[in-house]
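User: I'm writing a short methods note and want a consistent example. For Response regulator receiver protein, I'll paste the sequence; you return only the structure tokens, no commentary, since I'll be parsing the reply automatically.
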Amino acid sequence: MSTVEYEIKNTTELRNAEDAIRMAELENMRPLPRISVHAFCESEELQRVMERCGQDRRMSKVGLRITSGGIAAAANMFASAPTPNLIILETRAGAGNLLTELAPLASVCDPSTKVIIVGYYNDIALYRELVRNGISEYMVQPVAMPDIMMAMATIFVDPDAEPLGRSIAFIGAKGGVGSSTIAHNCAFGISNLFSTETILADLDLPYGTANIDFDQDPTQGIAEAVYAPDRLDEVFLDRLLTKCSEHLSLLAAPSLLDRAYDFEGHAFQPVLEVLQRNAPVTVLDVPHAWSEWTRSVLASVDEVVICASPDLANLRNAKNMMDALRKMRPNDKMPHLILNQVGMPKRPEISPSDFCEPLETDPIAIIPFDAHLFGNAANSGRMISEMDAKSPTAETFSQISHIVTGRIAVRKARKGRLLGLLKRK
Ligand SMILES: Nc1ncnc2c1ncn2[C@@H]1O[C@H](COP(=O)(O)OP(=O)(O)OP(=O)(O)O)[C@@H](O)[C@H]1O
Ligand SMILES: [Mg+2]
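Assistant:
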């Protein structure tokens, strides 16, 4: 055998061995969670690799789109559409111009969106520069299907990957103030507006209304999850979810009184954990109660929204809740406040400014009392935006959905955050 032949044989063997190792790693990979992925491919090779990824069983919950084109196509598309959880971008740009070419995309990219770049330069300095600027991975062509799968797993599946999901809890300052109604409309809004997979968990086990509000009657849901924490993984979770709309799933309350529902303090933590690992957004409908378990849920979520009506008892309770939550979450933003059922005919009310002054916060939304709109929606198992998409209340729910997910309307994002993506890690 000549030296050249020997080297070729050796290289081929090496490559086969590497492929075998990568395929073995892939065997052990957990399925990817309910993320949205959009790949922009400049070459046919990458397009084929992405198509193969899309056929893999570990991608069954992933919403994958493949578009031919590069950074410019991506920037163009996301100027008018929300960004997915992950963008995979192929580009032939190198150290000299890559960051500059990324700037227009960065200006329209949501901060939570991850980016993988597939490039053509084996350049460690460029790699470091990109990672410093918030790019999750820079992969050098030729990349194969397992490479892309493993890169996605590192971001979204690894045990030490940061939890994927953002959790938002809604609670009322008093019973009946519309906290559940607002939670359900926001969960629906978030899933619809951002095409992002959202799970709504109804934690009001005896009386929960999410099933009624979405016209569903599931036999399983949150009760099975909270009473079987040892069985709780993504497969079990899947069986407990009820699909409400294209991107919204419900973990429904039993809403039955055949048993008492007493929970120990950390009872819902395993549920929160599995939800955060499996969906980009979890909305929690927390009943109006102040027990060990509700406090534990409120202490561990990313965002808390307190809903209140403008009377004195609501004000006193909202003030106490704000103070307690600030102590429980000293390093977090203050809870958001929503004033609901404002302007009920003949009812004496505290004005929004008088209500908010002692709370030292501004409400993120003031929702008027509208018995007709809310009553019809509740009775027909539909959301406000489905009843009347053009109503000011539907627009308010859209704004709340933006605020609680940290999404900024594209219009605003364009203005001040030119290098938003490039600055974050
Ligand atoms: N802005 C509004 N205008 C008119 N009715 C409303 C408004 N918001 C909510 N409602 C109605 O108020 C009632 C109570 O709402 P909801 O069940 O959402 O409140 P809650 O705070 O979750 O109550 P609970 O304490 O029972 O959990 C429902 O019938 C709902 O349709
Ligand atoms: Mg409720």
